Every structure is written in structure tokens, then in C-alpha cells.
């Protein structure tokens, strides 16, 4: 935490150095760093006098001035010059977090050679892997992992990040229509990419969140889905 103290001799405002006919054209400031055991404090003492020190300490900054209405910008510069961290700067420049996916780079290359299937509703899909277990009848619960993306490939939802498969009842309207339809023909152990058109997607869309893109209403989305098991059928 850094505390900024200002003493403006020509103004009652502690935030901006005023400008106008009643004040001189140039103000000079003498920034000093007062160190304590825990909190470094930057003190800037300003004067509206024309005369002032021509140079500041070589260790701090040479010929630094804060002028008129640009004081706010100048203080940001002072903070960066003195090496004081700015609030909210932590984590800047870090590489984007790599999110887990059901289809890696090798899988993406293989998808190019897999034929596309188009249904009467307009849903399209490619089978990444054909399962060997049972297919879920309408009304049965299924446990599936999924990674939901916008067409650019940005992930907006994923069961992999939550660490548990998503359980829902097929054909009951508990998920978007494209996912409901797309998982019906799958077999347990299978993996499929669904290209869901806007008419089978999110009617109201989804708002954006940190690190997650916005989904516009009735816009196409992509789901990678793996059918993990069907309770009641796998147990037989």
C-alpha cells in the first residue's frame, strides 16, 4: 500500500494543481520518499512560485515538474519512475491461462479429415471418437464432460474446469437444444464436436465474465462433448 500526501501552497484542492490567471504559469515540486518499516510514503511538496530548484536529486529524477491540469498524469509518472507499484498492476504481462480441452492440437488436425454430419434441424457434428457403450434413450440421465466455445475457439464454459461431469436428463430441455440433440446418438466412451447453430443455441445469450467471452443471443456455438456414462444402463 502506498500513501500519497500532497501539500499545495496555492490551492485548497489536494488532487489537482490549479491553473488560471490568479496563479503563476509554472509550479515546481520537490518529491521525496520517506521510508518506514512497512509502508513507503511518497511526499510531494509543491509551490506556485516561479523560482525553484533547477534540478532534483540525480538519484530520483532530473528536472521533473508537475504542470497545471496534468498533475494526475504526472503523479502516475512519478510512481513509475520511483519504482512504486501501481494498484492493479500485479499479474500484468502474464501469459493467458491455458484451459483444459477435450480436443488438443493433434485432435484438431484429425478433425479436418473427419466427415461432417448435418441433421434436419441444422445441427452439425463430427465424431472424434466412437464409443462402445450404450446410447442414452430420451428421458435418461447422462453424465458428460463438455467444453463450450464461441466460433473463434474461446472457451466460455467447461465441466473440465469444475472437475466433475455434468449430469442432465436427455430431451428434458435442461440444456440447449443442440446439445440435447447431439448427445442422443452418442455411445458411452464416445467424443463428439457439435457445431450448434443459433436457432439451437442460447436464445438470450450469455454475458461476458473475466477471461470468458460474451455469447450473443441466438449465435452459433461449438461444444466438445464426451459421454462418460448413463446411470442405470452402465450398471446393468
Characterise this structure.
This protein has 236 residues and is of the alpha+beta class. The protein has a domain at 123-229: Chitinase A, domain 3, CATH 3.10.50.40. It is built from 4 helices and 10 strands, in the order βββααββββαβαββ. The strands form 2 sheets. Strands 4, 5, 6, 7, 8, 9 and 10 form a 7-stranded antiparallel beta sheet that branches. Strands 1-3-2 form a 3-stranded mixed beta sheet, with no helix packed on it. β6 (141-149) and β7 (155-158) form a beta hairpin. It starts with a strand and ends in a 7-residue tail after the last strand.
Total helices: the number is 4
Query: Could you say which structural class the secondary elements and strand pairing correspond to?
Result: alpha+beta
Distance between the termini: 62 Å
Residue windows where pLDDT falls under 50 for at least 5 positions: 1-69, 76-92
Secondary-structure element order, N to C: EEEHHEEEEHEHEE
Largest sheet: 7 strands, antiparallel
**Total strand segments:** 10
**Would you tell me which CATH topology of the domain at 123-229 applies?**
Chitinase A, domain 3
Q: What proportion of the residues is helical, as a percent range?
A: 10-25%
Q: In percent terms, what proportion of residues is strand?
A: 25-35%
Q: What is the architecture of the domain at 123-229 at the second tier of CATH?
A: Roll
Envelope shape: globular
Rounded mean pLDDT is: 73
Q: What Rg do the Cα atoms give? A: 30 Å
The CATH class label of the domain at 123-229 is Alpha Beta
Amino acid at each position: 500500500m502506498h500513501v500519497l500526501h500532497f501539500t499545495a501552497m496555492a490551492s485548497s484542492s489536494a488532487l489537482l494543481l490549479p491553473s488560471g490567471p490568479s496563479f503563476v504559469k509554472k509550479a515546481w515540486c520537490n518529491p521525496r520518499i520517506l521510508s518506514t518499516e512497512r509502508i513507503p510514503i511518497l511526499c510531494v511538496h509543491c509551490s506556485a512560485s516561479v523560482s525553484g530548484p533547477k534540478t532534483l536529486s540525480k538519484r530520483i529524477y532530473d528536472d521533473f515538474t508537475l504542470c497545471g491540469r496534468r498533475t494526475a498524469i504526472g503523479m502516475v509518472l512519478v510512481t513509475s519512475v520511483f519504482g512504486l507499484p501501481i494498484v492493479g498492476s500485479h499479474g500484468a504481462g502474464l501469459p493467458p491461462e491455458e484451459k483444459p480441452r477435450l480436443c488438443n492440437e493433434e485432435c484438431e488436425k484429425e478433425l479436418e479429415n473427419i466427415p461432417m454430419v448435418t441433421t434436419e434441424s441444422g445441427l452439425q457434428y463430427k465424431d472424434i471418437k466412437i464409443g462402445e457403450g450404450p446410447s442414452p434413450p430420451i428421458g435418461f440421465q447422462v453424465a458428460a464432460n463438455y467444453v463450450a466455445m464461441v466460433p473463434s475457439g474461446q472457451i466460455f464454459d467447461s465441466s473440465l474446469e469444475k472437475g466433475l461431469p455434468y449430469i442432465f436428463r436427455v430431451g428434458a430441455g435442461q440444456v440447449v437444444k443442440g446439445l440435447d440433440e447431439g448427445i442422443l446418438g452418442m455411445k458411452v466412451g464416445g467424443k463428439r464436436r457439435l457445431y450448434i447453430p443459433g436457432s439451437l443455441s442460447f436464445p438470450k445469450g450469455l454475458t461476458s465474465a473475466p477471461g470468458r467471452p460474451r455469447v450473443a443471443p441466438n449465435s452459433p456455438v461449438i461444444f466438445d462433448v464426451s459421454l462418460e456414462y448413463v446411470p442405470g444402463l452402465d450398471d446393468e
